[in-house]
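Following up on my earlier thread - several people asked me to post the actual chain instead of describing it. Fair enough. Here it is, all 406 residues.
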Amino acid sequence: MRRATALGALGAVSFLTFLCPTWTTPSIAADMRGITATEIRIGQTMPYSGPVSAFGALGKGEVGYFRMLNEKGGINGRKVNLISLDDSYAPPKSVEQTRKLVESDEVALIFSSIGTAHNTAIAKYLQSKNVPQLFIGSGASKFADIAQYPQATMGVQAPFRYEARLYARYALAKNPSAKFAVISQNDDYGRDYLAGLKDVLGDKYDTVVTSATYEIQDPTIDSQIVKLKASGADVFVIAATPKFAAQAIRKSFEIGWRPMTFLSNVAVWVSTVMEPAGLEAGTGILSTAYVKDPDDPAWKDDPGVKGWREFMTKYVPEADQHDTNYVNSYNSAMALEAVLKACGDDLSTENILKQAYAIHDLELPMLLPGIKVNTSPTDHVPVDQMQFMRFNGKSWERFGELQTGN
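Reply from S.P.:
Thanks for posting it. Predicted structure:
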């Protein structure tokens, strides 16, 4: 079993951070699981090993953020013991580790666990134990379904389905007769992009969309890309995690296929996707953004980016500051901090959920200007706006106004 430590390395250590304001004499109710006068225990699973271990950066960044808060005294005297366990990006392992977090570690809530299939696998169990599932590390729109996931909030990221709707609308505005090809991961993550396209294309979907899927264990997706080119599609949607996104970009370039290409915003990293694929191969690809890219010269003197860099340099010194996973981790940790601060001294499950569903116009320094975090009892989607961007061969350039995919 692996844990992310407060030092940012992987090993068997839990890490401390923060909690809620306005307390005097502690009066901890019996039903406040994971809460003491000085501590709150929070749990998560992360793919520190396995096929998408790059996403483990999210957990490392959150570890660093909470350590920073602890060094500043926590929040009103309480610190949080964030127990971050490795699940190797395998849903059965996510279930096993989550059960340990709840039954052995007695965490108050599950925070930012990565993966669509993984969060799906643990949801009913967490509901049965009355454990909140907050700021899920997935953009799958299913987690906004309050009837199915009443104790969950989506992550601080734009939903995949909304993103796909924007791609379809953009492509059709350029060419109303566009034919689409889609490479997608064979799970709910990939299916969300197909659903978003169908939302826009409607009855035309079956006649204008050709799709191919891959499994996370596949070595390559070259044959799928060749098949998609043969469809004659002039729009290509890459709904893939970084490794396979890089393969899709490279292979389509090698075989001379130059459709209008859209890339999932979870795979827009220059250092781990665009460079391995070949910068020339990725030139002109479109995607969406909702966070500030620290590599974008537009943010060179931005106070939010400067604060993020200072945090990263001190608390996650080994990290690649070109990796936007660390931006997402910063945003998610800040959002949880705001929820817990709003709890006052009432850290019961009921009040934690109440505050998680009552976020109003929360501005985070690493979200794009104009994007604010909002939730309500009937809206569990913290972020629903995005801005288009295009890869210029070196970096991503944003263009146009903020848009929503709902």
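Confidence is low (pLDDT under 50) at residues 4-30. That should answer part of your original question.
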